[in-house]
Amino acid sequence: MNFGITLPNFGKYADKNEILNIATAAQELGFDSIWVSDHIVIPDTHKGFGDVFYEPIVTLSYLASITKGIKLGSSVIILPYRNPVVLAKMVSTLDQLSGARVILGIGAGWLEKEFQALGVPYSDRGEMTDEFLKVLKTLWTQENPSFNGKYFNFSDIKFLPKPVQKPYPPIWIGGGSDKAIERAATYGDGWHPVGLTPEKLKERLNHLNKLLTNQKKENFTISLRRNLEINNDKTISPDDTLRGSIEKIVKGIKDYKELGVNHLILHFLSGTSEGVLNTMKRFSNEIRTQI
Questions:
Q1: Which of 13, 92, 250, 258 has the fewest Cβ atoms surrounding its Cβ within 10 A?
Q2: Taking the domains of the chain in order of start, what are their residue ranges?
């Protein structure tokens, strides 16, 4: 099982130095990947995100020049917000400059007021996501790309550089709904839900595996993003699978591994940036060694 860690590109500790410190510590401690989240504007009704939100592709590009080897992921890019031709160029450039380290997590989005602020039709987000995925793959794989869709049409163009990873960087589809799972089976190289308990994950995987029987996909990744906190609080709900004692967290990770999770992305709930760094060390020394 591989392990990644989220970076504070948003929220209370969103800061260049905090992002850099945690990213470099993740590399030094042997984590397999680092991850950034995505929102463009934050409606006043959703202040829980904090006021600052660093743009994910730019943040990963900055980190690509500072780190080596560790994978660079998005959890997740909200695809309808972006021109897919421009995004395809940015991702392929990042894959080239980073040395084939990109994992592209994408989602259809859910925050209606943000769609309104960006002038993107909320009701069309699913249809746009599916078409934009086709646009990305067309540009990355065709020597002379052409496309005829509802939202984008192009032909007689060149698109270079192509990504280093072939046929393109892994695409992990975020979301736990039936539609998101169907999109993952149809268009994705992996599925990337957030916060599911082992019981709920098992139920959702039954649906995914039925869909995958009709697809010829090798090395399909099951990824999961979950909060992790080491403490001795006996009142924490059992549904908070990775919050509590070392023993509880180890058991939870083993349960996920047994279900087929290949890549576990951890969001540490440690109160301070120093607490995050300390939890990272404890995870590497006391938890990962038991998996």
A1: 258
A2: 2-132+170-290
Nearest to 140 by CA among 96, 80, 79, 172: 96
| Residue appearing with tokens 């660079």 | 72
Q: Decide: 80 and 132 in contact? Cβ < 8 Å.
A: yes
Please state which CATH class domain 2-132+170-290 belongs to. Answer: alpha beta
Helix axes 56-64, 84-98, angle to 10 degrees: 20
**How many angstroms separate the CA atoms of 173 and 194, rounded?**
11
Three-state secondary structure call for residue 210: helix
Q: Measuring CA to CA, which residue among 12, 27, 169 is closest to residue 87?
A: 169
Look up residue 276 and give its two tokens: 């995050």
106 in Cβ contact with 129 (< 8 Å): yes
The answer to whether residues 125 and 73 touch, using CB atoms and an 8 Å cutoff, is no
* Alpha carbons 281 and 50: distance in angstroms, whole number: 26
Q: Three-state DSSP class for 167?
A: coil
Nearest CA to 281 among 21, 29, 24, 18? 29
One-letter amino acid of 194: V
**Residue 57's closest CA among 23, 22, 92, 32?**
92
Reading the chain (291 residues) residue by residue, the pLDDT tens digits are: 999 999 999 988 899 999 999 999 999 999 999 999 999 999 998 878 888 999 999 999 999 999 999 999 999 999 999 999 999 999 999 999 999 999 999 999 999 999 999 999 999 999 999 999 999 999 999 999 999 999 999 999 999 999 999 999 999 999 999 999 999 999 999 999 999 999 999 999 999 999 999 888 888 999 999 999 999 998 999 999 999 999 999 999 999 999 999 999 999 998 788 999 999 999 999 999 999
Nearest to 57 by CA among 85, 93, 31: 93
